[in-house]
Amino acid sequence: LRNAFFSPRILVNNPEIVDYSLAGLSRQYALEIDTMLVDDLRNFLFGAPASGGFDLASLNIQRGRDHGLRYYNDMREAYGLKRIETFDEIIDDPTVVEIMLDIYGTPDHMDPWIGGLAERHLHGAMVGETIAAVLRDQFIRLRDGDEFFYLNDFDLMSSDMMYGIIDLD
């Protein structure tokens, strides 16, 4: 992974690599969404350690803080979800629970990105309750904000306009 960061020449010099990469990706299982990041995302983002390498987790946490994201429980509440009192309510791994206690003390002070990654997944899903709520909200906003979304009322546009949209596909 680290060898592919910011390496457009790989694609420019080998355009067939896109097909090979997509074929390979379609045959591999994704790692589980959890609090563990592969080393290349923790140490080699934008370069090697001590040579410009960054930690994606720390960047994501700081980005959330810079943008004024609420704490984990506040975010859950904003999405109509129940606040949690203890880390055990969402995390099965006792080691992760201990780490969360050491870092945050209480779920009320946890960063939402970390809490979302740590959550027990919903049945049949790759994410927990909070990230699912965020994704649901995002897709609803995208759909409702798109006047040309296929389920929206097409009486608002002329037939010529509709045919023009269909022709673009």
Automatic annotation (TrEMBL):
PROSITE patterns recorded: PEROXIDASE_3
Predominant place of localization: secreted
InterPro entries in the cross-refs: Haem_peroxidase_animal, Haem_peroxidase_sf, Haem_peroxidase_sf_animal
Entry annotated with the keyword DNA damage: no
Cell compartment(s), UniProt: Secreted
UniProt key word Zinc-finger: no
One GO cellular component term noted in the UniProt record for this chain: extracellular region
GO-annotated biological processes: response to oxidative stress
UniProtKB keywords: Glycoprotein, Secreted
Example of a GO MF term: peroxidase activity
PANTHER family in alphabetical order: CHORION PEROXIDASE, OXIDASE/PEROXIDASE
Protein name in the entry: Peroxidase
